[in-house]
Every structure is written in structure tokens, then in C-alpha cells.
Amino acid sequence: MRTSFIKTSILGLSVAASSLFAEATYTPHKYQQNDWFAEFGGNTSMYVNPAGISETEQLEFSAAFFSSISGEASQEYISLTFPMDYKHTLGFSAFENGASIDGGKSYGEYAFLFGYAYNLMQFLSLGVDVSLLYINQFDEVTHLTMGADVGVSWNPLASSKYGYLLVGVALQNALQPAISTAEKDAPTFVLLTEDEAYKIPSNLNISLFYRGLNRSLEGKAEFSIIDVMHDDEEGGEGMNLEMSFTLTYYLSSHLGVRARFTKEGYPVIGATVNVKDISFFRYLAVDLEMSHDDLYAKKNRGFIWAVKLTTRFGDTREEKIGEERYRRLKIEPENDYRAAMRLYLNREFLKAAYAFGKVQTKYPAFHLVDQAAFYKAKSFENLRMHKAATSVYEDAIKRYPQSDQRAKYHFQLMNIDYKEGKYTEAMAKYQNIAQKFGESDVKADADYIAGQIKFEQGLYQESVDLLAAILPGNANYFYARYTMGIAYSRMGKWEEAENCFRDITEQPVSNQSERDLQDAAKVKLGHIYFSGEKPDIAAAAQMYGQVEAGSPVYDEAMLGIAWSFLKVNKPDEAMKPAQWIISNMPESFLVSEAYLVIGYSYFIKKDYNNSVKALEQAEKRTEQPVVSVASRDSARQAYEAMQSEFDSVQVKALDLSRQLPTPRVESKREALQPSFDKANKSMEDYAAFTQKSIQSDRFESNRKRILDDAGFTLATVKTKMSQGGGSSEAAQELEELEDLE
């Protein structure tokens, strides 16, 4: 008798209590649906169709309570859905059902659903959930079982004009939970293969959800084919059709009224109230629904009601993805770009090249990617990696045909040719720039380089014609005016040269390079005043005196002051700046001429012994070039031997700059660093030697003059010493010396 009772209870209440709407008499072919809580289009829709949760736009939590007026039958649930991005949604629901028999022992059922939905396309989603059921049958038998549902959600209509339509098809209990009908004393995990087990029916749910009339009307229809996988041994015919309909009309955006016709065949009325964007919640809604289940058939529960709370908070999918996209497309590339620029400004050029390469490779749609390419190439160029820089500029010209950096790419290619002494190629590129980018800011920069090339070729007037177009405010203005001043000097146009140098001294400086060039212009003006047809020694000394210690031309300015004092017959004052040069700048090319000034000064003072010593030093330091032919040949051979290795380093560095900084790439960069350091040091040493050679070549024009002046004065002094000549004769000999410069 007890076994029969338990079996009957299991078959009846495991289905009836779980639905809350069971009839008094159990019909085994009929498995009711949850009309009250699990609505297609809502966040608990995975109870009906697991694909439905894909419509959740932000983190959503809901809780509900259902009860009969007596409180003997009730159900509670909580549900949470979490949208991860456009594609993925996770859901969780927990239901608790309870009912008692004539005030005696209670039946309890606990269902836990874990769901996942995937947006296959913008309008099509797939979903699956796994349900875990724990059933307590009047404390007599307990069961733990599981099942699974699958579903599809289709959104064929979504517009402001026609509304929003959602269609869902799901196989509920595709994996059917099994409930044992055998008497057992301990909790049991029930499998589908158990002989004495009742399998909860599989149902085919077809759901329609529509929202229209400017979001003021919502309608839902549910069609369920019950027990589609019918087992004759479990009784009934199966394949029964049940339907429910729900209509909600919003009187305002915050208040709606609802009517429902359930699958049980009785009406439900209710209302929904919501508020938006309050302190913590983005959305908060409360639904209240009620009915009487004895309206059409006696179910012995009478008045029934349900209240439901729904909350939404946090960012929506669009906001989260938009923020992620903004970070990926805007914030992250800008941060990486700024980090690369910091390396560039700190003159860590190889690291900067890699960093700009990351921006170019990782963020091809970034709005500053063309500038990243420019500074990547400039980084290589500053390392004298001209082959790598050229490759980047040429690639950028092809890759960014609409970029406003194109003119700069072409100019930098011209500039590299100029640096490498390829004047013909550089001038060909200049003509291209003049034709295609004649109205761009780059044209003035190209004019400057072209003017420098003409100057190097000795075409001084052509150089001046090109450089004259560079006006104040241009970064090359100081350099252009300085070259023009030198060109005019070599053409003997002293007034024009003076004007160019004066233009430089009258302009405000913005950086150390311009300040150094301004000092150089002051020295050149001093030379013009000193050596003009009508020398102005005071003006020359004033210009020399404006140059401050630390300037690259300070030694030349000090020498000019020494000559100025000597020119006005003040030998003691003349020797002080000359001796300062010898003591403080022993490597200066002007040391030999400083000794010449000292020799002249002692000659005037009739201190012939010291004059001889100084003049002999002047001769000794002037006889041989500072940079010999042998040292030039040796340096060039070492450079050529290193050049092939440096070219290899350039190729590897360029390739690594095109790759993202993965651990493997970083290890390759670290492995390349020693080779780069070695090759780069050789390049730097050769560049420094080349600059010294250029200064030595410039000194050559003064070397003969110093040798002649020192030799002639030395011979005169020695003659006077051997003859014991007086001061009047010495003064006469001094007057016969060539004009001092």
C-alpha cells in the first residue's frame, strides 16, 4: 500500500507541484508550462527557450513569489542574466516549488538552470541550458536528476516603424530529467536508463513576442506541443497542443496593464510599474498579477497571485562593447602612441622605432597611424639606419595615399639622399616635391635642403635664391640665413652677408640649436667689422663679447677679442683670452692661432724670448693637418668593414619593428641589441671623426696664413735678438707685418 501511494504521489506531484497549476486529477500525458514567470522575451525565458536570454542587454536580476490565497501552494524564484559581449550571454535561474496535502507533509522541488546563448548572427541566436532538479517527496523519497533544453531565437523584424518581433523554437527537456518510481531510503541520482523511472516529458515550444506602437504594446503567444517524445508505457496519447496569450499595454512609459489567457484556460489580469535611471538601478520594475483558477474548472486553490521584481544595472552591451572598442581603437592606440613618442623625445630611438611599429601593426585603423609610420622612420633615420628609414617611408607612401604626411615622406627621402651625398638623386626628389607639393609646408624644408646642396656644390647664388624664400617662423630660418651669410661672404657681398647675420641676431630663439647659431652669427659679424674696408674694432669686440661661455664658438669669439686688443696695441689684454683658449680648450683648432697672438703680444712688449716660444708653438701646431690622410684612410676602411654588419642590423631591426612585442619577438630584440650597440658605436665614432675632418679641412685655409705669419714674425724676432735692436726698430718691423685678422 505504501509503495503504491509513493508511486502515485511521484507521478502526480512531481509534475503538478512543479507547475503550480496542476489539476486535482493527474493526467500523465500533460506537463504544464510556467505561464506566470517564464515569459519569452524576458530574462527568465530560458525556462521556455534558452536562446531567449540573448535578448538581455545588461546585467539583469529578478525575483518573484507566487502563492495561492491559502498559502499552501507556492513558488519562488530568482534569476540572473549576464551579457558578456555581442555574442555571448550567461543565465542562471533557481525555482522552488512547494505544496502540502491536507496540511500534512509537504512536497518540495528545487530546480537550478544554467543557460548559455550565442548570437550566431545579429538576428539569430542559439541557446542551451542544463537543469539540475532536487525533489523531496513528502520526506519519504528524495531525488537528484538533471536535464537539458535547446532552442533557437530569430529576430526577423526590428525597426522603429514596424516594431520588434521575436520568434523562438525550443525543445524543452531534450535531455529528459528522470524521476524514480522505486521506493528508496536515501537521496538518489536518477538516470534516464533506470527501469523504474518516470521521464518528464519533452515539449516543443513555439514562442512569439512582439513589441510595437512606439513600444506601448507588447504581445506574446506560446504554443506548446506536450510530450513530443511520447512513451506509451507512461500513459496518455502525447503530442497535445496548449496555448497561452499575453497582452500588455503601457499607459505611459512607466505604467502598463496586462491581460493573460493561460494554458490552463483561465484569464489573468495584472499591472506593471517601472522607473529608470535611479541611484543604483538603471531599470526597476514591479509586476503584480492575479486570477482565480476555479473560474472554468474546479482546482480547489481559488484566488492566486504573483509579484515579480526585475532590476537592471551596469553598462549595456553597447556601452561595454563601445567602451572596449573606444579603448581598443582610441585609448589603447593613443596610449601606445604617446608611449612611443616619449621614447622618441628621450632619444631612445631604437625602442621608439619598435613602439611606433607596434602602433602601425596593431592599430591599422588608428587615426595617427600615418604619423606613427613617420616617426618610426625618423627614429631609424636618427640612428643613421638610412636603409631601414627609406623602406618605411616608401612603404608609407604606398600604404597611406590619402595621408597629409605624404609630402613629409617624400621630403625625408630627399633628406636621406642629401645626408648620404647623393645630390643628383636628392635634387630629382626636390623637383617632384616642387611639382606635387608646392603649396605644402614641406616645400620650404625642401628649399632649404636644395639650397644646402647648391652651397656644397659651390653654386652660391643659386643657393641664396633657394634659401631666401625661407621666412621667420620656419624651423630652418636661422640655418638658411646663416648659409646665405656664408654664401654672400664667399661672393664678396659683405653688406648682404652682414644683413643675413644680423637677421639671425635679431630673432628670438626657441631652442639651444638656434641659440648656438645666433652666437655663430655674432662671431661672423665680428669678423666682418674687424676685416672690413673701414674696420670697426670696437663693434667687432662688442659682437665677440656677446658670446657666452659654453657656446660652441666661444673659442672663436675669445680669439676675436684677443685680435681686437692686439689691433689697438693692447698686448697684455690680448694675451688673456688667448691663454684662456690654450688652457681650457687644448683640443680646439684655434690653439695654434692663440699662440700666434701671444707671440705677437710678446713681440710688441719686446719680450723676444717668450715671443719665440709662442711662435714656435704656433708653427709646431700648424705644420701638420689635424686630421691626417692616413687617419682618414684608416677610419674609412673601418667604416666600410662595419657597414655590411650595420646593414644586416638594419634589416633585422626593421623586420622586428613590424611585429607585435610577443615574448618571442622581445627575446629576438634583446638578442639583436649587442650587435646594434657595436655597429651603432662604430657609426657614431665615424660620424664624429667625419665632423672633425670637416673642421680640419676648414682650418686648412688658415693653416698657410698662420705658418707664414708665425714664420715671418719668428724670423724677425730672432734677427732682432741677434742684432740687439731697439724698440723703434721693433715697432717698425711690426708695422710691416701683414694686417692681423
3D structure, described in words:
- The protein is α+β, with helices and mostly antiparallel strands and 741 residues long.
- It contains 20 helices and 17 strands.
- The chain has helices at residues 2-19, 317-345, 349-362, 369-382, 386-399, 406-419, 423-436, 442-456, 460-467, 477-490, 494-505, 512-531, 537-545, 554-567, 571-584, 591-604, 608-623, 629-657, 663-723, 727-735, and strands at 58-68, 73-83, 88-100, 106-121, 124-137, 141-159, 163-175, 178-180, 188-189, 197-199, 203-212, 217-226, 240-252, 255-261, 267-276, 283-292, 303-316.
- The strands form two sheets. The protein has a 14-stranded antiparallel barrel with strand order 1-2-3-4-5-6-7-11-12-13-14-15-16-17. A two-stranded antiparallel ribbon has the order 8-10.
- Residues 1-33 and 726-741 have low confidence and may be disordered.
